[in-house]
């Protein structure tokens, strides 16, 4: 005990020593930043003082331009330095609160003594900048902490493997600069600390897990080799957490060549997006680019169509089973997301190479300028060996030339002169500026008029020119409609009904969700698309919800990106992804698969209860944290359902649970339940547009709760009526696995067959 006390004191005084170093560093930075800030203010104020503007002669213009540029660069450099120093200050302040969370004493082979390696969220050097007082958790040596127990161990560095022996492995809880806990750990990273972390209350924002990353998670985080890293992990196994730590790791490992703008995350919904948005900043990194597949589709479609969102589709699949045409729509969804459908598009494109492309016509002031037939003939006159996008390019070039010739003639028409006369002062001024740029002087009236006419015509032709330059010659909508009538498709089951539905939707300017990807894919195959080479790492979370077709599409958009693909087959909730091939089980060349079977989110009792809902659930291993048994309550009336839920919320609040979710099956059910419950308990309704939530009691459809967790979950109506079909199994499982500490199910009438038999109320 005494020995422990001494150790404790020693550790506490080391923390104080660190704080002294931090203080000194902060003071130094403060001086520097003060100077920098003054420099910036001064530079901004005097920006124009040191610049002589002289535009009399071309040489003077160049000189003026150069001096402005130099001045601007100087300012930018200073501001950058200021920004970096600011980041450093933030980091030091964070370290001051909690300098490190781990330590290993490592004796390197050939060395006399073990070195103490302290690990924290950032590195810290001593006053002389000679030795590391703290190692960043992402440094090569820190991997010892995550990968090994005391005993023989090694870690990889860019110059080779370093072998040695770990003599001690210790964990700390340091809050507000004070040592609150300290454990020496044997085997894996202390269950004790993990128990403590996982036992806490759920947050409305995800937390970083640096202090307790598990070995198998560390493999995901530090993987550098694989082109495609595929993670199948059970609910609550830390997939999202590992993905975010991995982004932070990559930003550190490749800090000279990679920035947060080169990393993109596809997440399931806007709520999830904001839920995870604080993890990277907490680690001192900037957030990566975050989007949803839906947002990505919308950005591609522009204004011409409204794209049905995936939630409306899911809402339909869950609520409309008795409507006419339901089965066909489901068949349509499954077919249009399949690789077979993609193949049909490929075949169609192949055919279009020799005939059948449909072009737009271009009109100018009500008159036909280029007819679609004319463009068609121009296009097919080029060699068939040339790809469609390249032939489009050649066609557009020819049309642009014709357009210039047309513009020249048009300038002499009366309407142009009339319009020139109506121009106001502003336009003249603009015209004047333009002539200056083009080094045309307004010598006489004739020149001025010529310039203005040119400008007017080119203004009117701007939209056509832009379309030609962007190779927007094809009538993609007509082509997609034509594709729907292809012979190969006619063989698909119920195709004529599926097609009728699609055409009806397109007539109403709506693209069904299942058609959005194929439509854009067809467009890209024909027009060609500049690949996004800027994004170097793509993270796809909830990957089980992506069809193989969607994945192929993404792969085409980001051909040079490495991809981290994370998901759980048992949480596939879309009509296209249930019991169907998805991105998660696709065989990808250059892939590495990691399977996570341990669940950290929920108590052992909840994991044992939920794992019975799915096939293969026995392989899910709970982390050993105890809590109350989940409950199932069967009620016979809506009134008792609501009374039960209201009482339960009260009880949970009394126990101190801060985030309580009442999870419904659909948005429609959430809305009705909300209306009836809101008078009795403070409650917030989450909708698909909601992108943040606060602590308290919320009510939401299961598909919006994806990826998120709550202290306690109440399943609104876990009846057979609501969750009886096989296609509702995964949704049910997903909803139940959102619970960290408590799970309570209410069933109006007979219970869902997915509830373990011995628990049915
Ligand atoms: N190594 C760890 N240390 C501490 N907490 C962890 C660790 N791994 C996971 N957790 C916690 O477990 C919970 C679930 O993690 P996460 O949301 O990343 O899992 P997931 O696999 O993405 O879950 P799901 O698929 O169910 O959405 C989170 O609260 C996370 O902080």
From TrEMBL:
The keyword Phosphoprotein does not apply. It comes from the Bacteria. ATP binds at residues 233-240. GO terms for molecular function: helicase activity. It is an enzyme of class 5 (isomerase). The keyword ATP-binding applies. Keywords: ATP-binding, Helicase, Hydrolase, Isomerase, Nucleotide-binding. This is DNA 3'-5' helicase. The gene is helD.
